[in-house]
Specification:
By secondary structure, the chain is α+β, with helices and mostly antiparallel strands. 33% of the residues lie in helices and 21% in strands.
Length: 453
């Protein structure tokens, strides 16, 4: 370990308590974008935090939640961009939390709170890395840094595209560290290089002006059955999506992707333990589960119709609705899928089923042989003492596309404070203190080496 890295690590360890207090303060501020709770207050808090860490800050209003921007120059003209978000998922069901979600609690070597990992704890870890590198360089940064901290990631980032397009001059960078990242169950650093796109829609149908007695089911149309039949037309038992043209443009994994997928561990047994799954989709086993991420999907996220309370109610529902999302692989376009979905329903005789688009994101993927990826992998191996795992594509979606293309094919990697059971989006979300510290050490080393790329 070089002397400068020792100074960085020592600084982070010595100031860990202060950064945990800062994380707790941020997590104590509710910022639930799904219901617009505390967004302005949290944006202002984030702005004050960035200023306290030596960044020049601007807060940009949007039709939704504000976007917080921070920048600091470095010795090199190169700039590293950090993307984070201050919004969090709703904490419900509250009864499943061991401690209140907005009252951060330290126990068993971890900080528990909504946002402790996703994404407030991660943001503070990156600011801590910034401090440590600046301290090791006696007040200077080796390269410039730009922070973009938005407040609508958890609801599909509806305003980040226009923000980027309107402020390209402020966002010029040569690499980006995205929110997320961490270690696998064996303690190996996991660097994600790509994400799928997503199209989220609500399908709804109304067959009557009001609910009716189920004794009229022999003559009155049932909205629930109508919707179920429409949903059944979207995908078959073989898991293939039946919308004509849905797979057009979908790119298979490249030869390099195939190598990376083969190098990933087999997590089948772990997933069986976590989810209690008896059989995976299409009978997949072993490393087939890793490769399946290159298959686009159609998922029913929620259904509502009629009476669903305790006991029995013989009702014929007048209205039914379903939330459906399509995860898309590189080469697919959510706008194109939306058009094809509507045309399919019309063609199949379901023209009465309305389609409302709730949000869309495009796929994005960084080349695994990019020098920036090599830097992140090398420094990850140094921090964790294990070779880094490169994941060419993960199943989720995030607005990388909004930055990567407009900023000139910007290379993007995930490197963070997570592990496989942080319970992000679920009750008892937490970040382990050692993971937080190692995540900050990793970010600091990437920042330290970025100027020389």
């Amino acid at each position: 370990m070089r002397p400068i890295e020792r100074r960085i690590d020592a600084y982070l360890s010595e100031h860990l308590d202060r950064y945990l207090e800062e994380t707790a303060r941020l997590c104590a501020q509710p910022s639930v974008s799904a219901r617009g709770e505390g967004m302005v207050e949290c944006a202002q808090l984030v702005g004050r935090m960035l200023e306290a860490h030596g960044l020049a800050v601007r807060i940009f209003p949007t039709p939704g939640a504000p976007i917080v921007y921070g920048h600091a120059d470095g010795i090199s003209p190169r700039t590293l961009l950090f993307y984070n978000h201050y919004d969090v998922q709703p904490p419900e069901p509250l009864e499943l939390w061991s401690s209140p979600p907005f009252e951060p609690t330290l126990r068993d070597g971890a900080l528990y709170a909504r946002g402790a990992c996703d994404d407030k704890g991660e943001l503070v870890a990156r600011l801590a890395a910034l401090d440590a590198v600046r301290e090791a360089h006696r007040g200077s940064l080796p390269c410039g840094v730009t922070f973009v901290v938005e407040g609508e990631e958890e609801i599909g980032s509806p305003h980040v595209v226009s923000f980027v397009q309107e402020h390209l001059d402020l966002l010029r960078a040569q690499g980006a560290i995205w929110e997320g990242g961490g270690i696998d169950p064996e303690g190996r650093p996991v660097l994600t290089l790509g994400v799928r796109g997503v199209l989220s829609v609500e399908l709804s149908v109304q067959t009557l002006t009001r609910d009716a007695h189920s004794g009229a089911a022999h003559r009155l149309p049932n909205a629930a059955w109508r919707l179920v039949w429409a949903l059944a037309s979207l995908k078959g038992p073989d898991e293939r999506v039946r919308i004509p043209g849905f797979y057009e443009g979908a790119l298979p994994p490249s030869p390099l992707d195939e190598e990376l997928l083969e190098a990933l561990p087999d997590y089948e047994e772990l997933e069986r333990q976590i989810y209690g799954v008896r059989e995976f989709v299409r009978g997949l086993r072993g490393k087939e589960l890793n490769r399946a991420v290159f298959e686009p999907t159609c998922n029913i996220a929620g259904l509502t119709a009629g009476y669903q309370g305790p006991g029995m109610k013989t009702v014929l529902p007048a209205r039914a609705a379903a939330k459906v999302d399509f995860r898309l692989v590189p080469g697919q376009d959510p706008n194109d899928v939306l058009v094809k979905l509507s045309a399919h329903l019309q063609r199949e005789g379901f023209g009465d089923v309305s389609v409302q688009c709730l949000g869309a994101m495009w796929p994005a993927k960084t080349a695994a042989d990019a020098p920036f990826v090599a830097l992140a992998a090398r420094t990850g191996a140094e921090v964790y003492g294990r070779p880094a795992l490169l994941v060419p594509l993960e199943g989720g979606s995030t607005p990388i596309y909004a930055f990567a293309g407009p900023l000139g094919d910007l290379p993007v990697v995930f490197a963070g404070v997570g592990y496989w059971d942080n319970r992000a989006h679920a009750p008892d979300e937490h970040v382990r203190l050692q993971d937080w510290l190692n995540g900050a050490r990793h970010i600091a080393r990437i920042l330290e080496g970025f100027a020389a790329l």
